[in-house]
Design a protein that fits this description.
The complex is a heterodimer of chains A (117) and B (113).
Chain A lengths: L4 E3 L2 E4 L5 E6 L6 E7 L6 E7 L2 E4 L8 E4 L6 E5 L8 E8 L11 E2 L3 E5 L1
Parallel strand pairs in A: 2-11
Antiparallel strand pairs in A: 1-3, 3-8, 4-5, 4-9, 5-6, 7-8, 9-10, 9-11
Chain B lengths: L3 E4 L2 E5 L4 E7 L5 E7 L6 E6 L5 E4 L2 E5 L5 E6 L8 E8 L8 E3 L3 E6 L1
Parallel strand pairs in B: 2-11
Antiparallel strand pairs in B: 1-3, 3-8, 4-5, 4-9, 6-7, 7-8, 9-10, 9-11
Classes of the chains: A mainly beta (117), B mainly beta (113).
Amino acid sequence: EAGVVQSPRYKIIEKKQPVAFWCNPISGHNTLYWYLQNLGQGPELLIRYENEEAVDDSQLPKDRFSAERLKGVDSTLKIQPAELGDSAVYLCASSHTPGLGGTGELFFGEGSRLTVL
Amino acid sequence: GQQLNQSPQSMFIQEGEDVSMNCTSSSIFNTWLWYKQDPGEGPVLLIALYKAGELTSNGRLTAQFGITRKDSFLNISASIPSDVGIYFCAGRSTYNQGGKLIFGQGTELSVKP
């Protein structure tokens, strides 16, 4: 079974430029997560989707960040415009819905490392 | 909001030694997960715990769900060089924050051959 696939693995941009990250979750996982991981820290949730619905986006900085999961499978996370402080690793994860026949164990992709110059 | 305190922050040990790390929460969790992250990779799930007092092993790794439901422990026995990495605990409570999974700050493990 294929794992969570993310692209690009690495991205270097200048500040004020836009950037987008793509995630393909594990087949059959209806819950998709985007996490932000700063250097030396644990992942922090940005947004969680149940199918195509964003059920928790309270930590997503909506002035510059946006995300979508139009058909309930793949997802994209966009930053426009990027700032220096956005340099981090953006992790995508997927799971079966916790409590609905699923244990809610998250499986992560390899991450997209963003450097903003 | 909920916070997880993970300790120690880092450990430097000799190959063959046993390792212990733990996580404590300010509130009750009903799920604890332990992950390992290698440099440049995403976290990989090691052990999942769902009941207070539960003790679960995965090879040389053993994790326990504390009986107070506010803590969890991970032990690694007879460490080897490939155990090097950052270990994260993560906890979830369906009673708070809609079951959001919260991560600790990580324990960085270094193993000297």
